[in-house]
Amino acid sequence: MTTSGGTLVLAPAHQEPGSGRPPGPYARLFHIPGARAFTAGNLIARLPMGMFSVSAVIMIAGERGSYALAGAVTATGLAATAVVAPWTARLVDRYGQARVAVPATVLAALGSLALLLCVRHGAPDWTLFAAYAATATTPNTGGMSRARWAHLLKDDPAARHTANSFEQAADELCFMLGPVLAAVLCAAFFPEAGTLAGAALLLTGVLLFAAQRSTEPPVSSLASRGRSPLRTPTMAAMLAVFLATGAVFGSMEVVTIAYADGPEAGVVLALQAAGSCLAGLAYGRAHRTARLRTCLAAMTALMTLPLLAATTTGSLLAVAGALLVAGMATAPTMVTGMTTIQRLTPEGRLNEGMTLAVTALLGGIAAGSATGGWTVEHAGPALGYVIPAAAAGLALLLSLVPAQVGAGMTKARLS
């Protein structure tokens, strides 16, 4: 491992003593001093991202007897996050990860505890909306971790690609395990257990992550006077692609839950996440990478498999296998998309740029969930799989047209 311009460049791989072969690309990443520590803290902080909404729905529906109220509260939290998250990310870029992430996380944890108390003690319904909206200050922990890798590996594109692939696989793993953990805690102990555990994990993880100051990106003077990522050419086109991609995820979840219509839904959805996780790890080891539009074309093609399985076989097992294969296009698409966002974002505004992409994803997930639910109700669960396939096709089209806007985006390639 060598240094260049204040950043790290991984030296050519040498054989590890007694191993007989050089370390793989992921092992080389974690030879960087401090990488294991900040990654461990970030994974702990990221796990609750898949827990909070499930825990809130179980807690509110269990105590108040209304899934409609539970859904409305979580939707309000999602909308608040879409508004607040870019501002939180901008503060992170301007003042540093540790100085902003810790107080923002404390406020979010207090919002979760306030929600718990309001539900537990029968407070008016409006207090649930207010409390859950306070959790919108939760920092984008995945974005902060990617920003650290981008800083540490600034002069090593191949290693940066591996790091981005690892982060995407970690996202999939956390969103696969989070809902399961939340459901188990709420069922095994009490309805508020998932929310309590999520808040504790989030705060603990962010504190551990923020304590690793040696790997924290330095604050750039450009963070306060540089132009907004939204003013970067082709950024709007990229965010539109992320919006449509989010609709794939949101509709797929709702349609699959309706199709399975039972506890098997969680296992089936976990298979999709598992396929994405494995594909992300494999993609990180690849010496050659694909263009974004190629990844989107693959995702569009593979998203037709669950539709074909559901409409031609009617077998949940066949749909589960189709989702496992379809999920394999997700991580490469997200890795390539996030890398493109990093390239388009002005210097000093990286956290803000990546958080805008996540915000677009969240907006797409909300729209996809609503559209998928409407389609299931009016056309049936099997035909509901038309929506994720159509959303993937829309994302592909948005990456291609208009040509003068999309050209810079579609030419972006990982070295």
Largest sheet: 2 strands, antiparallel
SS-based class? mainly alpha
CATH architectural arrangement of the largest domain: Up-down Bundle
DSSP E strands, number: 2
CATH topology type of the largest domain: Growth Hormone, Chain: A
Low-pLDDT residue intervals, each spanning 5 or more residues: 1-9, 11-18, 402-415
- What is the CATH top level name of the largest domain? Mainly Alpha
Please state how the strands of the largest beta sheet are arranged side by side.
1-2
* Mean of pLDDT: 80
Molecular structure report:
By secondary structure, the chain is an all-alpha fold. The chain folds into 2 domains: 186 residues, Up-down Bundle (Growth Hormone, Chain: A); 190 residues, MFS general substrate transporter like domains (Growth Hormone, Chain: A), CATH 1.20.1250. The longest helix has 32 residues. The radius of gyration is 21 Å and the shape is globular. This is MFS transporter. It comes from Streptomyces pratisoli.
